[in-house]
Amino acid sequence: MNSARHAPTGLATTSELGVLGVRDLDFTVDRVPVGAGLGTLVERYWMTSWDLPTGRPASVTLLPHPCVNLVFDRGQLMISGVGSERFTYAYQGRGRVFGIKFRPGGFQPFHGGPVAELTDQVRPLATLWGETDATAFADELAAAAELPDLVAVAERWLRAHWPEPDSEVARVGRIVRALLHDRSITRVQDVTERFGLSMRTLQRLFQRYVGVSPKWVLRRYRLHEAAARLAEGAGGTWADVAVDLGYFDQSHFIRDFVRAVGLTPVAYAEACLRREAPLSA
């Protein structure tokens, strides 16, 4: 059964979209809001869990958000940078993956350097916090029985390593929220005008704090919504979806969609209608 516990959305800098195809009924997604004082840098906690019959494999294909995650999977605690391409996660038997999703820009104060260094990278947390702390953190997560226990462990370690305040994170957050929610923003130039930044300053800000360009973020959020609407069979055609999301050039929408998802909007919608997911990394 697929379910989710939703975090408050008032200050959200990411959506809860990004799973491609019809959502698989073989896994459960839980999302948990962060504790007091941590929401400036952390978006939410999440856990994916599954319990499959012996011999039946499954997989899920994701279109990543512009976020760094700390991911605890199969005993390993890893820093997962922004993924620029879709990827497929295969699973079987019984298991779970726990993650800390940082806000876009929110991991930079922990990392110290440009977050673009982490894009499409997966690195052991030990490379940042040292072997002793990373191992102790992973051991405590492995011993946690339930999701609230995992969250409690994560919050204790986050607070112990909490960085100094950085006002640029809040500025990045305001820009990213606008990219996520404001349909009047259809070009990066709209962002520079809205926030009084030069194009060069904006690009440098995102390279250092987010890891991908503002154009990439805008496109990714719109494609998340397009994929969700097509999968749900919402009213209207894919052309209607393209216009609603600010694509005035339908060929541009098709090109972006195929590059991100691997199928045309029509083929994707038809696959979802048949409850098929011919999607792979």
Automatic annotation (TrEMBL):
Start and end residues of each HTH araC/xylS-type domain: 170-271
UniProt KW keywords: DNA-binding, Transcription, Transcription regulation
Domain of life, source organism: Bacteria
Keyword DNA-binding among record annotations: yes
Name of the protein in question: DUF6597 domain-containing transcriptional factor
